Amino acid sequence: MSAPKKGDLSPSEKELFEVITAGNVQEASRLLGCKDVRVNCLDEYGMTPLMHAAYKGKADMCKLLLQHGADVNCNEHEHGYTALMFAGLSGKTDITWMMLDAGAETDVVNSVGRTAAQMAAFVGQHDCVTVINNFFSRARLDYYTKPQGLEKEPKLPAKLAGPLHKVIMSTNLNPVKMVMLIKENPLLAEVEALDKCRRVMELICEKCIKQQDMNEVLAMKMHYISCVLGKCASFLKDREDKLDGLLKSLLKGRDSDGFPVYQEKFIRECIRKFPYCDATLLQQLVRSIAPVEIGNDPTALSVLTQAITGQVGFMDAEFCTTCGEKGAEKRCSICKMVIYCDQACQKMHWFTHKKICKKLQEQREKQEAEAAKLRMQQNKEESKAVQDAIDSMQELSVETSSEVTPSNTAAETETSDPASTPAADN
Mainly localized where (predicted)? Predict the structure, then answer.
């Protein structure tokens, strides 16, 4: 079959684009089996079926097209857009990840010199930016599951690659969440397994720094993960409560305000231990965190999250107090000042939150009372202002009426004077 040309579509290919718009996966599958349908055919703008599916947020359609050999890096669009760029514009993180996992190149630029991440950021799709900036292909990790050179055994057992990759791909850098991911997988939650994973993270960190296209952001993330893995291993070795003990240590808040001091110190220590002192990113992090007293903003977690994921602080979203997961909606029923993603996180945090829950409740009630008082005062002032305006209008109306009355009277007098009428002349 001939190479695709812009706008050169068979009737079945035209129908395929219509079916993609409608989201009919079953019909699209039938059409892709036709001889006159090319999976990488181009419409008049140079868009492939995969680009259309990505832009319209059709995850199942994208998966189907990739299974049929769709070229994820096709760059025939009139403005140089790729499927990854359209995925970022759609705001769908699952489709963005799908494009990346299929081999999408992240450094390709469009006609105005923007990458997929920059385009997503331009339209406010920051979650997609985070996915793109933090993507680490499974193939790169699988490299360490095979013996290299004279090695008799690989550095990373193949059974650990999946669980470790899940930790690497997490965009939630809260150490509590990372420990939870480790704890939930029995293969990973063993001292020997953690030590091997930590060593691989250190090797990847070193490679990110020393490669030609140095990637300090990814290097810092791998270093941070290695620190978390190391801390998990030490608790498994030395503590009877094991990872539960580590979770409690990370969550425990100080008595005065519940701030997790141990967690803050741990993250600061992770950053301080970054082995490449000349790295620009390290210097930026230190300058941002060092002057801040523990317990004040910005926290080490927020600074690190912004540096690695590209998310600016924790604005415009609610995050779980326990694990830092985005989109938390459940509040403590007593104080209503802390928020959780589910009951499990609330239960895990209660041992420390209960110490300040009543205090937070009193603070909230005081704030609500002050706010209510302020609203009443504002309402009174607004009512007074409205009444003053009404009174002023009424006074103006009376003054205007007084000015008009004499002239009317005079007019009436002139009209009623017999000498001024035509009849008087007779």
Answer: other
How confident is the model at residue 171, as a pLDDT? 87
Burial class (CB in 10 A: 0-12, 13-18, 19+), 211: exposed
Cα Rg of the chain (Å, integer): 34
Q: How far apart are CA 143 and CA 79, in angstroms?
A: 36
Mean pLDDT for the stretch of residues 338-364: 95
Q: Is the peptide bond before 4 cis (omega within 30 degrees of 0)?
A: no
Q: How far apart are CA 109 and CA 67, in angstroms?
A: 26
| Region label for 7, one of left (φ > 0), alpha (ψ between -120 and 50) or beta (otherwise) | left
Measured distance CA(336)–CA(270) in Å, rounded: 32
Please state which CATH number belongs to domain 11-135. 1.25.40.20
At residue 340, the 3 state secondary structure works out as strand
Residue tagged 């996966």 (tokens): 25
Q: Minimal CA–CA distance to 185: which of 130, 232, 241, 131?
A: 232
d(CA 311, CA 301): 12
For 97, 109, 119, 362, the CA distances from 106, given in Å and listed in that order, are: 11, 9, 11, 50
Residues 249-266: what's their mean pLDDT?
Answer: 96
385-391's contacts with Cβ under 8 Å and 24+ in sequence apart are none
What DSSP character marks residue 339?
E
Domain boundaries, the chain: 11-135, 140-315, 359-425
Residue 339, φ and ψ in degrees, nearest 5? -130, 145
CA separation for the pair 295, 177 (Å, rounded): 20
For residue 162, give both structure tokens. 């999946």
Q: Measure the CA–CA gap between 360 and 249, rounded to whole angstroms.
A: 22
Separation of alpha carbons 56 and 109, rounded Å: 21
pTM for the model: 0.78
Whether omega for the bond prior to residue 186 falls within 30 degrees of 0, making it cis, is no
Contact 221, 174 (CB under 8 A): no
Q: Residue 256: CB partners within 8 Å, gap ≥ 6?
A: 356
- The model's pLDDT over 114-172, given as tens digits with 9 standing for 90+, comes to 999 999 999 999 889 888 988 998 999 999 999 998 999 999 999 999 999 999 999 89
- Give the relative orientation of helices 261-272 and 280-289 as an angle to the nearest 10 degrees: 150
